[in-house]
Amino acid sequence: MKVLVVGGGGREHAICWKLAQSPRVTELYCAPGNAGIAQVATCVPIKATDVDAMVAWAKENAMDFVMVAPDDPLALGMVDALEAVGIAAFGPRANAAIIEASKAFSKELMKKYNIPTAKYETFTELDKALAYIRAQGAPIVVKADGLALGKGVVVAATVEEAEQAVREMMEDKKFGASGSTVVIEECMVGPEVTVLAFCDGEHLVPMLSSQDHKRAYDGNKGPNTGGMGAFCPSPNYTPEVAAFCEKNIFQPTVNALKAEGRPFKGVIYFGLMLTKDGPRVVEYNARFGDPETQPILSMLDTDLMDIFQACVDGTLDKVDIKWKKGAACCIVLASGGYPVSYQSGYPISGLEEAGKNATVFHAGTKVNDKGEIVNAGGRVLGVTVTGDSLSDAISKAYAAAKPITWTDMHYRTDIGKV
Ligand code: AMP
Ligand code: GLY
């Protein structure tokens, strides 16, 4: 099969790395890809959000299957557009990807189908939003409705902070149109767990549970990032929690989307909080998480292409999905200054040495004129290792990352420990 993966980060490297192991995948392409992905797939210089160019290229080059990984092209309807020209595509159509693209939509869906989540109200008028915040008091959570690169959520400790967040979203248009509707919700407390699940529109198979680390610095300090590391499975996700989530959250979500005429095929990302009143949905995403995918796919024993195909064909209930025993950990190595501002173009050393003991997924890298691999983004590498236990995976990942360095590189030293 000729397969194209859309995207170019660490998540896409992990997906390509796993697909490249499938005997069914004879030609693998990735658009736009990166320097690491180029080691397992042929990179195609098309932006992930350029739906027309992507579909035209896939058709011209006779792709048998396209996997769309990032949120924006899914929300833009890339899967719909591929299907329209007869190409099998993995990922939700736009009308199902909306569970990530609109928080107002997903909150309403959960309310309608009694799926446990934080209490909330949706606002399109600033005055009403401000009045609600003052009436509710703090702490309180303010969310821009639309996609905002993971930055559209403010957990406000004070009423003033919440008011400022709403003003920035609705008045200053900090996130453009994404913030013209805001969701204001109850602040929940408890450990967070992520569960990704394969879906074929009707059936759902959860993957191993996982946890990422969103803050930039040790001790969960500093600004939010795309994710500084992740591990799986999560010790907080006990069999009892899993049973509750499967019965009250996962399958009800798939059923709800089907009942609404928006069958979901692809990966649903359940961001969960384990509150004292039980598990609650914090958010849905319509795709694999980054960096959670890096450790999760490292633990997968089944052919990923078989699973993708079954999701598209509606036969997921026929696939036996197997996982390795033990645990996996991914340490993200980032550019100095990320997530605010950073310099790129510094040559990276130690990659080969690290690769002897870990799978080093590339996120933001490219090859410069001299043929050197240099940093080319905020999150640069994800050093990923499997082990007998979580503590074993963590210590092996840090040991494997040791030889890697470039000017101003930074990473957290407490992934998996907080
Ligand atoms: P989201 O983009 O919706 O996942 O939100 C980003 C982060 O904000 C989550 O991972 C949580 O840590 C936090 N968060 C979101 N909603 C809530 C909530 N209702 N209560 C407490 N924390 C929240
Ligand atoms: N790691 C969080 C996300 O992919 O949204």
Distinct small molecules: adenosine monophosphate, glycine
Strand content: 25-35%
**Cα separation of the termini:** 42 Å
From the spread of the alpha carbons, the general shape counts as: globular
Helix percentage: 25-40%
Figure out the total of helices: 13
**Largest beta-sheet details:** 8 strands, antiparallel
Could you state the oligomeric state of the chains shown?
single chain
Q: In CATH terms, what is the architecture of the largest domain? A: 2-Layer Sandwich
Q: For the record, what CATH class of the largest domain applies? A: Alpha Beta
E-strand count: 21
CATH topology of the largest domain: D-amino Acid Aminotransferase, Chain A, domain 1
Regions with pLDDT < 50 over 5+ consecutive residues? none
Instruction: Assign the structural class, choosing from mainly alpha, mainly beta, alpha/beta, alpha+beta, or little secondary structure.
Output: alpha+beta
Tell me the Rg in angstroms: 21 Å
Q: Any idea what the CATH superfamily of the largest domain is called?
A: ATP-grasp fold, B domain
Strand sequence of the main sheet, in spatial order?
16-15-10-11-14-17-21-18
Number of domains: 4
Question: Mean pLDDT across all residues, rounded?
Answer: 96
